[in-house]
Amino acid sequence: MKQTNTTFNNYNLTKNILKDIAAMGFKTPTSIQAKCIPPALDGKDIIGLAQTGTGKTAAFALPIIQKVAHNMDMAALVLAPTRELAQQIAQTITNLGKSSGARVALLVGGTSIKEDSKALGSWPNILVATPGRLIDHIFSRTVDLSKIEILTIDEADHMHDMGFLPQIQQIIDVLPKKRQTMMFTATMSKKIEHFVRRSMHRPKRIEIGRVTPATRAEQKLFRVNEDEKLLLLMDLLSQKSQRILIFARTKRKVDQLARRISALNKNVARLHGDYEQSQREMAMEGFRNGKYNILVATDIAARGIDVANIEHVINYDFPSSAEDYIHRIGRTARATSSGLATSFVTRSDLSCLKHLEKMISSKLKLIHVGSENSKPYANKNRKNQNKNKHYNQKNKNHAKGKSQYNPRRRENKK
């Protein structure tokens, strides 16, 4: 997060807010905060473009707290694509608005209706929600959005990827026409921009830098075959103990990798959409406090992970979009830290890699496994892999012997 030379005292924030800012350890605003807070406090609609880890949450949270913390009614709505991100936002707003009277309610999937009723019955003035869960309450008429003064949509690009735009439009349709709207995203297609501008009034576009992977992250891309990935991963994990986040494409792959890694006596947690909310919270808390030093997750489940000091992000499966690559890399090298991002690239991933390079206007070096540049990982893995291939072939040949089940054999018939 690039810091500025200004301080939060320059923004005419209340003493209570400044007190909570100091308590959270924030000293100077980041670039996105410095550019967004003044117009947001003035009531301007905002389109904010900045990559993950630049302080976007505080950029909209502080103006929201300043403007609605004194309200008795629910006056601000924040939409996030995933449970984890919504929880992170709600916690940040709660911390920054602790002394100002901010009352935050959280509506996400995976929690009971009883818990939702309790949250909505606590007279919140700020609501943080995922689109699907909020739609359920709108249809059930268990939430009142008629007094909303500020709407914020976070990670609009991922909202689009997950197919949430129709639901967001349904939510917008029941909100007051006269309101302030802020939208934040790391990347923006023409389709998304057209969608958000339809519901905004002369928005101020704020873009912080070119949309690229975190500049402090060292990126290593390995050209591998699919059957080389696991051995390469195991070798990477054996190098030294770090806090590592591993991305896999499917829930099944996440479970498989977690089992293989745990067999190496590694403290590993997993995160994907099939887990109950309590399980997801336990995994995240364990990863955050150091109980687990490795987390294996799918993209959707991992959105919103805000864990300090993730030294290494590994793309076991290369992301299918350039936007997802940027989000993943943004999980390391947060704030002023540095980090390492390793990606496994197979032949089928080369078109995605080409699109990424075009988007960021940069050529990424691709290391072929087995080359001198891939040491100490690749050559060691190549040797182990050859041993495994020999072992597997031996077992396969043995399986073809007489002990193999043959339905035509008389002794196999009932």
Please tell me about this protein's structure:
- With 414 residues, this protein is of the alpha/beta class.
- The protein has two domains: 8-207, Rossmann fold, CATH 3.40.50.300; 217-395, P-loop containing nucleotide triphosphate hydrolases (Rossmann fold), CATH 3.40.50.
- Helix content is 41%, strand content 15%.
- It has helices at 15-23, 31-41, 56-68, 83-96, 113-120, 131-140, 156-161, 165-173, 190-197, 229-237, 251-262, 277-289, 299-302, 322-329, 350-360, 377-399; strands spanning 46-49, 76-79, 104-107, 126-129, 150-154, 180-185, 204-207, 217-223, 244-247, 268-271, 294-297, 312-315, 339-345, 366-368.
- The strands form two sheets. A seven-stranded parallel sheet has the order 3-4-2-5-6-1-7. It has a seven-stranded parallel sheet with strand order 10-11-9-12-13-8-14, with helices on both faces.
